[in-house]
Write a structure and sequence with these properties.
With 290 residues, the chain is of the alpha+beta class. It has one domain: Oxidoreductase, molybdopterin-binding domain (Sulfite Oxidase, Chain A, domain 2), CATH 3.90.420.10. The protein is 13% helix and 29% strand. The protein is built from six helices and 16 strands. Strands 2-1-10-5-6 form a five-stranded mixed β-sheet. Strands 3, 4, 7, 8 and 9 form a five-stranded antiparallel β-sheet that branches.
Length: 290
Amino acid sequence: MSDALDALRVPGRVAGPDEGITVDELGLAARNHAMPMELLREDVTPPGLHYVLTHYDIPAVDPAAWRLHVDGAVRGPVTLDLASLTARPSRTVRATMECAGNGRAALTPRPLSQPWLTGAVGTADWTGVPLTDLLDEAGLADDVVDLVFTGLDHGIERGVEQDYQRGLGVAEARGEDVLVAWAMNGAPLPVQHGFPVRLVVPGWYGMCNVKWLTRVTAATERFEGYQNRAYRLRQESDDEGEPVTRIEPRALLEPPGFPDFMTRARVARPGPVPLRGRAWSGWAPVARSR
């Protein structure tokens, strides 16, 4: 195997000291998009302005042929079509979702990937079936430790061909707000947000919220797939790193005044300028104030 291919296989490579944004990264930026910061004023982000990150191609999904399979170490595998899933008792959860790489373009050293600044975030009302209801119906074996979620998107990352898959521990997967969701802000999921069905894990970074969900597999060993290994905090490319899980406390200001087109530098007229913003976290309580 060549040294070049070995380098491709390293998850989370960081840029060299003088390495600028690459053409490949610009290509990612053209496919994906951030939430405009002025939309911090909205309690719920319109779907077309919610941040989007798609690892591979958006899959072509026939909703009539789509199925969700719950299998693996279970007493009785469950298979549902879309009509059966959406006919079940549902709930709606408002959740702020953020990409684990939000802000990476300004880091030193800079991880090579989608060059986010600050807008890889959005808040939506997600509607779906509580995942724990489906797990109860299938009946998890006593020795299950992880649930593995598989999406229909398929591609290559760092030289590894794969379906998009992400593992989550049983306790986290059984959270009361974890949903197998089919609606966003009261309407069917837009295709870029995982139509017809996606996983929503409030409080966890976006990589855990698997889109175009088609399979939930109960596993008796820890899932060590690529997306679990890649999302780790590293200072060097060969660091083992710490797993990225729940969203760290974060706050952003709604931009005051009005912008310069090219630089986005803000201009404010003389006089008092009110400052407003939002704060969120996947694990720490955030006090509300006005």
